[in-house]
């Protein structure tokens, strides 16, 4: 316990002295938009592509023109106050023909900073907000957007409400204040260490705030669940008032083994995100995996240590009165199993049909990066987006940047002009800016404005069309050019993650089958577990598409504008849901196998294992749903999507797949459920998740009688 307190103190010390998370431009090696950004940094060293930026939109009062003497003076004074800021690199005022609308009522100015958004000081942000407010006081409508406004993510009351719900569930499950508080205490210690650790290394490793929030969300959920499993098994293993030390050892050897294996599956799935090739996703996965590792270590060391301090106070009332024989029969679980096992085929068909129906919207999945359009109308970024769309068209919120490398052209200016003419003649392009050359005159930057919004599918088609038309023009003019910008970068990121999704899912499922074969010494259980994981995954994706893309019940989550699903969401969901699905599979089926290896027939083993594990699995699922559901109210779009997706995935996986479909399928399989080819049995290593080696031979008959008494017969 002292070791964990020292670790917590060390994490606090390092976090306080660190820079904390940063906001960095997303980088994805190997995609065209990233290569174009790199070329700009090479040929335009003073461009400061990583510098923060802000856009201020001005709208003249009704019936007036922005170019009038009075309104022009307000705009000039507003921008002049910003130009004096030491962090501001340049201020570009509204200009006719480009950043002033055709009717002259609306214009926008660009503010470029010398530093990235993570280094923009509060004083600079305040100066920006004050300048906009002064323009408003002078009678103009003024709104702002851009990376310079981002200040990070704060936890809301709703996000913290999940902890309160977890406390209530634990109290109802254990009936003891100390038993309920112990998992909460240990989980909070573990998640504090992991979150502060991520915070401490975030600056040097270039991690964003969403990385720490994901580690916090997942670490809190699994930390409570893992500790709860150990405490529950400790109470079950108590056979007398002086049996605390031995019971703790048996709990760690049984439930602790399951916790270690379940945690390992989560860690492997999250760490496996590194193979996708997206640095930001890799950082999220590794940070979350670190939080899970700490949660496992806390459950295996700190929880038993605290149990040693109060071995009797965590017991139920009956145990404290001296009755250490916990009831093995639970009326609700027995009634549910009687229903499931009586009509297993009907239950299986109905359950699969239900989940499949929920998953139907996933067929319309559109990946992208929701921007300011997805923010509430109360945010100035959203209002600035709407003003620009109304005055200039939706494409002005996401122009395409074209980088032309004309080193091999005989006349670079003429070659770049041909490229500009070709792009401007393409359907879907509203305008192309004048070329801006570097000092050597061999590289130019053009800005092309689409007619559609950054998240519109037609914009993606336009980018593909522009890229497909390049070969002939490049050969004729002896130039090469690439398309980039935030819009193109988001499109490329979506395409890269979509192409990596299927291979990653295949790797995850293959890993799941292998690990579960090792644990359960069965061929069919891993296959059913993997198929159940797919059902839960697609159901969660179906809910996400229905809410964020189609707008169903979007108002309940504060979503005023629908759009594409975050590009990283499907792969991130696969990594996390896989681990959580394996958690419930291990905790539930390991008790069934434990009963089977102790001599019970397949049907009785299903019933006995279900009765002994279903209560704690239900409690764990409710806790996870509460924790993840709280994060669905977050302001950050990715965290909001992840929170809702994980809450739905846990619901379907725990209540529909693991607690309903798995017992029904095991009943249909009968003894074949535990079959494994002999040659495969000899090759696979043995893992004693059920704690079979802890059973003394003399206790075996008593244990078998107890299991037999607990079983339900037809």
TrEMBL record:
Quote the subcellular location field of this record. Cell membrane
Q: Which domain of life is it from?
A: Bacteria
| Keywords attached to this entry | Cell membrane, Membrane, Transmembrane, Transmembrane helix
Looking at the record, which segments are called Disordered? 694-714
Transmembrane regions: 160-179, 184-202, 208-231, 252-278, 284-310, 344-365, 501-520, 527-552, 564-584, 616-635, 641-669
Enumerate composition-biased segments (Basic and acidic residues).
Answer: 699-708
Q: How does the record classify its membrane topology?
A: Multi-pass membrane protein
Q: Does Cell membrane appear among the keywords? A: yes
Major localization listed first in the record, in broad terms: membrane
Q: Which SUPFAM superfamilies match?
A: Multidrug efflux transporter AcrB transmembrane domain (SSF82866)
What InterPro entries does the record tag this protein with? MMPL_dom, Mycobact_MmpL, SSD
Q: Which family does the UniProt entry place this protein in?
A: Belongs to the resistance-nodulation-cell division (RND) (TC 2.A.6) family. MmpL subfamily.
Its recorded name reads MMPL family transporter
């Amino acid at each position: 316990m002292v070791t964990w307190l020292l670790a917590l103190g060390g994490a606090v010390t390092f976090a306080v002295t660190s820079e904390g998370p940063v906001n960095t431009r997303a980088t994805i090696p190997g995609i065209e938009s990233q290569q174009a950004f790199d070329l700009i940094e090479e040929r335009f060293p003073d461009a400061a592509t990583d510098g923060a930026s802000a856009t201020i939109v001005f709208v003249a009062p009704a019936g007036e023109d922005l170019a009038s003497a009075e309104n022009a003076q307000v705009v000039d004074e507003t921008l002049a106050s910003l130009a004096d800021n030491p962090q501001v690199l340049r201020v570009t005022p509204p200009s006719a023909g480009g950043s002033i609308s055709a009717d002259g009522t609306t214009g926008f100015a660009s503010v470029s900073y010398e530093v990235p958004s993570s280094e923009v000081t509060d004083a600079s942000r305040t100066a920006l907000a004050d300048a906009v407010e002064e323009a408003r006081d002078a009678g103009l409508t003024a709104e702002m957007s851009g990376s310079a406004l981002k200040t990070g993510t704060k936890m809301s009351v709703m996000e913290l409400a999940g902890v309160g719900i977890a406390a209530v569930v634990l109290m109802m499950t254990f009936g003891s204040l100390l038993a309920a508080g112990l998992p909460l205490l240990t989980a909070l210690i573990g998640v504090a260490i992991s979150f502060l650790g991520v915070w401490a290394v975030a600056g040097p490793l270039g991690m964003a705030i969403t990385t720490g929030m994901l580690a916090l969300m997942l670490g809190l959920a699994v930390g409570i669940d893992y500790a709860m499993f150990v405490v529950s098994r400790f109470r079950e293993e108590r056979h007398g008032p002086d049996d605390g030390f031995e019971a703790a050892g048996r709990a760690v050897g049984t439930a602790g083994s399951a916790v270690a294996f379940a945690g390992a599956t989560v860690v492997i799935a999250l760490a496996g995100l590194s193979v996708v090739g997206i640095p930001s996703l890799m950082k999220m996965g590794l940070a979350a995996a670190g939080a899970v590792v700490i949660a496992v270590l806390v459950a295996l060391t700190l929880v038993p240590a605290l149990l040693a301090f109060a071995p009797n106070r965590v017991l139920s009332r009956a145990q404290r009165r001296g009755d250490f024989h916990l009831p093995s029969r639970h009326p609700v679980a027995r009634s549910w199993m009687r229903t499931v096992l009586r009509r297993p085929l009907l239950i299986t068909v109905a359950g699969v049909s239900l989940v499949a129906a929920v998953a139907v919207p996933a067929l319309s999945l559109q990946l992208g990066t929701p921007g300011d359009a997805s923010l509430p109308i109360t945010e100035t970024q959203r209002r600035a987006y709407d003003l620009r769309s109304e005055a200039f068209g939706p494409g002005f919120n996401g122009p395409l940047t074209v980088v032309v490398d004309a080193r091999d052209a005989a006349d670079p200016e003429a070659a770049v002009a041909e490229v500009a003419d070709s792009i401007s003649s393409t359907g879907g392009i509203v305008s192309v800016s004048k070329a801006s050359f570097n000092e050597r005159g061999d590289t130019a930057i053009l800005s092309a404005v689409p007619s559609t919004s950054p998240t519109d599918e037609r914009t993606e088609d336009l980018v593909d069309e522009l890229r497909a038309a390049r070969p002939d023009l490049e050969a004729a003019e002896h130039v090469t050019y690439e398309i980039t910008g935030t819009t193109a970068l988001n499109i490329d990121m979506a395409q890269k993650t979509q192409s990596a999704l299927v291979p990653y899912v295949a790797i995850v499922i293959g890993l799941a089958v292998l690990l579960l074969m090792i644990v359960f010494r069965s061929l069919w259980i891993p296959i059913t577990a993997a198929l159940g994981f797919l059902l839960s995954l697609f159901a969660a994706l179906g809910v996400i598409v229905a809410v964020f893309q189609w707008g169903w019940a979007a108002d309940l989550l504060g979503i005023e504008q629908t759009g594409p699903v975050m590009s990283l969401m499907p792969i991130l969901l696969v990594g996390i849901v896989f681990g959580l699905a394996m958690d419930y599979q291990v905790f539930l089926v390991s008790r069934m196998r434990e009963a089977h290896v102790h001599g019970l027939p397949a049907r009785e083993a299903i019933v006995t294992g279900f009765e002994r594990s279903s209560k704690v699995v239900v409690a764990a699922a409710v806790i996870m749903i509460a924790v993840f559901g709280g994060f669905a109210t977050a302001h950050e779009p990715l965290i909001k999507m992840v929170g809702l997706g994980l809450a739905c995935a846990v619901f379907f996986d725990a209540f529909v797949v693991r607690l309903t479909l798995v017992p029904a399928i095991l009943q249909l399989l009968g003894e074949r459920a535990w079959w494994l080819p002999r040659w495969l049995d000899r090759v696979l290593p043995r893992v004693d998740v059920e704690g079979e080696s802890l059973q003394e031979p003399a206790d075996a008959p008593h244990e078998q009688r107890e299991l037999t008494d607990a079983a339900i017969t037809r």
